[in-house]
Structures are given as C-alpha cells and as structure tokens.
Amino acid sequence: MAITTADAAFLEAALELAARGPVVDPNPRVGCVLVNDGAVVGRGFHRGAGTPHAEAAALADAGEKTRGATAFVTLEPCNHHGRTPPCAAALIDAGVVRVVYAAADPSHAAAGGAQRLRAAGIAVEQATDDITDHAARAEALNPGWTFAARHGRPLVTWKSASTLDGRVAAADGTSRWITGPASRQEVHRLRARVGAVVVGTGTVRADDPALTVRDVPHDGQPLRVVLGRSDIPSSAKIFDDAAETLVIPTHDPAKALEQLHERGIRHVLLEGGPTLAAAFLAAGLVDEIHAYLAPVLLGAGAHLLGDLGIGTIADGQRWHLDDVARFGDDVRLIMSRTSPNRPARED
C-alpha cells in the first residue's frame, strides 16, 4: 500500500531505531515510533531476547499520549505470548488507532498481529510499494532471523579460504596463513554477525582454532560448535573461557542445525574443512558462500572440498555471484544459491 511522505519519514525513524538492536539475537531487530497529532510521542527498539519489544518500549516512552496515536513499526506487531506479551494486544490496550508497518512477520508462531489489530477496529497498513522500499530494508536488518522464521532452521554461510589451485593446506599440512591480514579481519567481522561458528573434529585437531571474534567491534562471541564423534583434546583452544562451546556428536548436518535452531541460533558460519563442507553442500544446507581466494599456488595439499558425489558437469551445483571485493591481494566472492526459476549466470 502506498504511504504518505510523512508516513515514510516516521518509518525511516523506526528503521534507524531498529538498527540499534543487537545484530546477533534469537529475536529480530525492530524499531517503533508513536505519533500523535503529527508529533513523535514515543520511541522504542528491541534490545535483545527477554527485553521489551519495540512496541512495548515505545508505549512506555509515550506514557498517557498513546491514546489516538499511530504506531510506525518496522515489523508486523507480534501475536504471540513468549517471554513478553503480544505487541498487538499491547497496542490495542494502549488506545492506538492506526498501525503502519514495513515487513510482514514470516514466523508461524508470532504472525497474525495485523489481523488481530484490524479485528479490534484499528486501521492497519503495510508499506509494501513505497519508493524507499521500507519492507525490504526492514527484512535486510534481520537476514538470519527472517530466513530461520521461514525455513525452520538457521541460515548457513560457508566461509572458505583457498589458493588459486583450490588448496586449503600445503602437502605438509600447514595452512597458516593462506590469505592475508585484511581478509582475516573481514572474517572476524563476519563472525561478529553470526550466532554460531561450526567446525568438525578434524579441524580442531589439525588447526586448534580459537573460533572467536577478535580485533573488530562485536556485541558478544558466537557459540563455538564442533560436529563429530572423535575425541578432542581437553587442551584445545575451543575449551577456553573466551566463548561458549558446544560439541554435537553427529555427522548429520540437518540434525545439528535443528539443535542449534532450538537454542535460538539464527545464522551459522560454517568454517570446517573439506569433509564437513561437502556434507552440508551435499545435503543442500548451505545458503551462501563467502569464498576468499589468495594469489598462491601450491600444486599439492588438501583440496578445498570433499566429494559431493557429482559425476558430470551438468549436475554441478550452480551459484549466483552476488559480490566481488578485494582485501589486500586476496579476492572475496559472495555467492547465493541458484533459484530454480533463475538460471545461473553465463558471462
């Protein structure tokens, strides 16, 4: 629905508020602005799981000025009683007369807020076709949460770092460092945006990685996850007190993701070796790839990826190239899955 210029400005303010919320959280980043007689009377954003939702925070900020107000929210008000009461009910009780929201709630548990508001006689509008595309921008604030709400599992990003000839280690097993410091810093920024970093037991034994975010701003450390049944030395860095570590004794990617989803993890960074990456790819459980390519040639050593069971080029997995960036002498490629309705690029 088209919205007015004034509506657009208030939604912009709500988006700015939403961006203040934590990037990594089981819940989405949401902002809310309450307007009465053309003036902003309340502002709020979600500060993380267990805290008041954006609408509740804005209502508390507005106090007695909520009656007759319009609520501008980046996400459809929830209709679910979890740790906090439903926002749709709170808006009704507060005497709000109109609600304008950007993105629809894709979750099964919390959807239906707009319908509940309309049933209570409140005017409800979604900004779906405005020029500034508030709906898409609101979803972009929560890529992991939105994906998980729609698919019932975390978004999975595979990060790889390889030489020009597709090696991730030399013949003697050494792998530090294939890429340069600029690429490695960017990987830390990526870690800071996910809920969990996943590797296999082989990577822990071979590389003894810390799997923590270092030297870049971050709200907290991701959960360190190790998949597999092999023994891990108690002296491994993943068992230090820098971050929480979870060992999942399975090689089944789907079961692992199910367990992580139940823990509130919405975005997973896959940093394991060739075998683990192949298992996730073969299961169709990688959603995007961040591939770092270094101008190095080895000619021998471990390959980037294990066997996918593909015997002919026609069956090869095709990916869309979404972005190319340079970090020092390295190149990073960001790729997303090929949609069945969209052919792979041929340029």
UniProtKB/TrEMBL annotation:
Give the EC number(s) under which this enzyme is classified. 3.5.4.26, 1.1.1.193
Q: Which residues form the CMP/dCMP-type deaminase domain?
A: 5-125
Cofactor list: Zn(2+)
The UniProt annotation places substrate binding at: 175, 191, 203, 211, 214, 271
Q: Which UniProt keywords apply?
A: Hydrolase, Metal-binding, Multifunctional enzyme, NADP, Oxidoreductase, Riboflavin biosynthesis, Zinc
> Which CDD domains would you find in this protein's record?
Riboflavin_deaminase-reductase
Q: Which Pfam families match?
A: dCMP_cyt_deam_1, RibD_C
Asked if the Swiss-Prot or TrEMBL record annotates the protein with the keyword NADP, the reply is yes
The UniProt entry, under InterPro entries, shows: APOBEC/CMP_deaminase_Zn-bd, CMP_dCMP_dom, Cytidine_deaminase-like, DHFR-like_dom_sf, Eubact_RibD, RibDG_C, Riboflavin_Biosynth_HTPR
Q: Which reaction does it catalyse?
A: 2,5-diamino-6-hydroxy-4-(5-phosphoribosylamino)-pyrimidine + H2O + H(+) = 5-amino-6-(5-phospho-D-ribosylamino)uracil + NH4(+); 5-amino-6-(5-phospho-D-ribitylamino)uracil + NADP(+) = 5-amino-6-(5-phospho-D-ribosylamino)uracil + NADPH + H(+)
Q: Which domain of life is it from?
A: Bacteria
Ligand binding (Zn(2+)): 53, 78, 87
Q: In which pathway does this enzyme or protein participate? A: Cofactor biosynthesis; riboflavin biosynthesis; 5-amino-6-(D-ribitylamino)uracil from GTP: step 3/4; Cofactor biosynthesis; riboflavin biosynthesis; 5-amino-6-(D-ribitylamino)uracil from GTP: step 2/4
Q: Name one GO molecular function term.
A: diaminohydroxyphosphoribosylaminopyrimidine deaminase activity
Q: Name one GO biological process term.
A: riboflavin biosynthetic process
Query: In the UniProt entry, which residues are flagged as the active site?
Result: 55
Explain how, and how many, cofactor molecules are bound.
Answer: Binds 1 zinc ion.
- Role according to the record: Converts 2,5-diamino-6-(ribosylamino)-4(3h)-pyrimidinone 5'-phosphate into 5-amino-6-(ribosylamino)-2,4(1h,3h)-pyrimidinedione 5'-phosphate.
The record's comment on protein family reads:
In the C-terminal section; belongs to the HTP reductase family. In the N-terminal section; belongs to the cytidine and deoxycytidylate deaminase family.
Q: What is this protein called?
A: Riboflavin biosynthesis protein RibD
Q: Source species, please?
A: Calidifontibacter indicus
